[in-house]
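User: I'm writing a tutorial on reading structure tokens. Could you give me a worked example: one chain, its sequence, then its tokens, then a sentence or two explaining what the tokens reveal?
Assistant: Sure. Here is the example chain.
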Amino acid sequence: MRKIIATGKGGVGKTTIIATLARLLARDGYRILVIDTDPSMNLATSLGLPFARLATLSNHKDAVREKMGTGADEGEGGHVHGPAVGKVLDEIISGYTMLSPDKIRVMVMGTIPYGGAGCICSSIALVKLVIAAIEKGGLSFDFIVVDSQAGSEVLGRGLAADYDLNLVVTEATPRALDVARHVMKLADDIGVKRQVIAVNKVVDFAEVSVVARELGVSPDAVYPVAYDRKVYDADRQSRQALDVAPDSVAIGNIRSIKDAIVL
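And here are its predicted structure tokens:
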């Protein structure tokens, strides 16, 4: 089982790329669990699921921790105990995920429930515990793909420690590259094994060399995703470009990222 986290600045198209990538992997026969840790919570709808029917982890923290055998107040240092394996873990998957039309399991962390409620730290810690339980329980996923919130907080909380890959989604703009540079540094600090950069909304493919130079990586690690009006139009219609224009340039570019990930 390979674990992937997707990071980047807000507004760069991370959710669109992750949703398309997960669907392409599923269509190739891979068993996928996608976990949305972005408080904006758009990934489920991008995968064709009615968000209102999803039970988020943050709204059921105590129940999930009780099932897993961890204390209700247990934080990032918590450990998954025996009850999380087997039947109880199946209950967590069935109770807190939904299956998309492409047979992708989708789990949503949830958001801050009200003003002044504090940070999402305890919810991130709970996601870490759930993933640890999945690994311990030996559930048969080929990939766990975590869509992080914009910025670097989940990496600062150590969510992706020892993950197989950090998919950095960026644009060739100074602000987006600043965030990309920072999340790459944090991912390296916590032992993420490999980093792949997807440069979204590319107009001039010379931008790939610029991004590689700015981020200090080989151009071979940078994958362009062309600006494509078809993707924009599909988003305006609340549809996915993979359905509307499966042969578009941008979808072809994301297929290249998928091929790089499965190597």
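What the tokens reveal: DSSP finds eleven helices and eight strands in the chain. Residues 2-262 form a domain with the Rossmann fold fold (CATH 3.40.50.300).
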